[in-house]
């Protein structure tokens, strides 16, 4: 296997190669550090690269491999989004308003290290993770490896760009309103937002008023399943044999609904290519033996402006209050926080009390089907700098029209995944989104693996790679 194929092999395959002795942990780590040094000046996917620490960890991992240890990710390098604590590093949230360096790992990082993973660095985010584009006054713009004039998406944009360009085999992301699924779509990756609380978020508690979850951006479905097996809460329902076992066999005949409408009051682009991808997926799934129908989700009229956005804005407000230097935030972020400050504790409590009712209405579609498929996004990624000098409300309205299909499933908390579905007319990746019943990541992973086997995407590589 040559060095480029190795860089793009994915975490599960690299773990197998490390165990067999076909590659060493120091050599694999150096491969990524060399690629980062060469490609990062253009991409800016990492906020910080932890080269010396990674080299020390790789040497230790190799000694453990030589001693016969077989931890699932032993010797595999990974990247961590810069909203998650890594001991000894700043967690900047895309801003110079944060600090100082933290003294302990977040729980998910602790679990990844326990599985043997080596941390290459922390990936770039937009300020306070607000936007589906990764640009900040403090750290500049992250660029899409498929087209450097475009954003990779956000807020896990640095993680998406790094994995797409072969600068990490997989990366940790977070998702409060689509922040894993949007960059996974626009970077040509697999991304899954797990069930709320599946992956521990400590020390973060109720991020964005309960909307936020942690999950992976990967090259393969197998890698995503491996991540969930390593990090997932074992007290929550999971498939027999773990999530990797769920990917090993195609699902039994499923009932699948194709849904095209965005939630009410959210203006959405109507790009025919994105909608065609969903219908093409329906055709494929019929060929694979599944029952496929078209049926729209019954979103409540008040779901977006009465429930989603107040929680999101209030979540940003709460996060800003915890910063040591909030005066350093850019004007647009302060605008979002000011709006969030208008959401009182009493109003927030009433909104949270209504979640069960809204979730029941949205999930009524699962009385008749097992999986719902929507477009991944409504259109392709924007140009870098497209929203510069615009205010908070104008920017939110404009970006929401590109990505209207994700955030409602943060409200309900159920799992949703995106998988690559070809390239659009501009040569940029598209995806379809698979939405499952609460706690049923297993069906999404099994169905995703079946589609991946029929339409493999992992060897598709971007221009900057």
UniProtKB/TrEMBL annotation:
Catalysed reaction equations from the record: a monocarboxylic acid amide + H2O = a monocarboxylate + NH4(+)
Transferase in keyword set:
no
Enzyme Commission number(s): 3.5.1.4
Specify one Pfam family.
Answer: Amidase
- Segments forming domain Amidase: 28-445
Read off the NCBIfam families from this record: PRK12470.1
The name on file for this protein is amidase
Please name the source species.
Mycolicibacterium brumae
